[in-house]
Design goal:
Two copies of one chain form a homodimer. By secondary structure, the first copy, chain A, is of the alpha+beta class. Chain A has two domains: 2-38; 43-162, Nuclear Transport Factor 2, Chain: A (Roll). Helices cover 44% and strands 35% of the residues of chain A. Chain A contains five helices and six strands; from the N terminus they run ααααββαββββ. Chain A has helices at 2-32, 34-38, 43-62, 66-70, 90-102, and strands at residues 73-80, 87-88, 107-117, 122-132, 135-149, 152-162. A six-stranded mixed sheet of chain A has the order 2-1-6-5-4-3, with helices on one face. Chain A is globular. Chains A and B meet through helix 1, helix 2, strand 5 and strand 6 of A and helix 1, helix 2, strand 5 and strand 6 of B.
Chain lengths: 167, 167
């Protein structure tokens, strides 16, 4: 009987050990998946967020709101405009935006083509059309590098050029 | 004596159990660090690799080698040249490069400013100067999106524009 008791104790411990090992291997499985969870960044969602930011951009151009436009850029952004040296920082970008609005641009159509990247940095490729009133004055292409600032995707680098020769 | 033997057996199992748990917690520690190892992508090394690729680019321009230049781009690259629609694919990029060489460009100076990204996608910001013989004909800025193809960083998106107005 004592042997049986000890046998039970031992069996119990073996079960406990088996449980510990199983539990360990389950933990291992969970933890192996951790980087997957980390990289479960959803590019489709991010793309939708970029599309939404682009809608805001278009609305601010239509409203002639250079402050609203500048706030869509990160504090340390660069606006790499064609025909001008790069403009650094939100304040200077606001001046550049003010200049563009004063030049008569009333509308920009941004058309996202694709996005790539991670939750830390997104690259967007797109096409854009510029309008003065109803007149399409330029067809261009662009690359925007987006970074999150205070939880919102903001333009970090913005470069574009014309599809037509200036000549 | 039998009791002692059983006691030893039980103690042994307890030790084994303790070892299993310790080993499990050590494993846990290792695995928690796994994403760190994964993200131990070295941006400084990547930057040096991009600088090396840029040197190759400059050498191919100097040699008037449009095939060499095109091979620095990914198979599915886009060359987003100022004053032209985007050119897609290595074959078309080779034609564009051939056109640039025939236009008289003998030298390009590429100056990397910064890189961002991961092992899957790098973004480079830089400045460039174009020369016809000894004459600096254009000062420009660029963004290149780099992707690895067959273990080598290649240009995936290449966009640039002039710092001077075309007027």
């Amino acid at each position: 009987m004592k042997k049986t008791t000890n046998h039970l104790k031992v069996s119990g411990l073996v079960l406990l050990l088996a449980f510990a090992v199983t539990s360990c291997s389950e933990k291992k499985h969970e933890e192996t998946n951790e980087p997957v969870t980390k990289s479960e960044f959803n590019l489709t969602n991010a793309k939708a967020e970029i599309e939404a930011a682009n809608k805001e951009f278009m609305a601010f151009v239509a409203a002639g709101d250079s402050v609203g436009l500048a706030n869509l850029y990160t504090e340390d952004a660069k606006f790499m405009s064609a025909g001008n040296p790069a403009v650094s920082g939100r304040k200077n970008i606001q001046s550049a935006m003010s200049g563009i609005i004063k030049s008569g641009i009333t509308r920009v159509d941004l058309r996202l083509i694709d996005v790539w990247g991670t939750e830390d940095l997104l690259v967007e490729e797109g096409d854009l059309s510029l309008f003065v009133g109803d007149k399409n004055v330029s067809e261009e292409k662009y690359i925007v590098v987006w970074k999150k600032e205070e939880g919102k995707w903001k333009l970090f680098r913005d470069i574009f050029n014309s599809n037509q020769s200036a000549k």
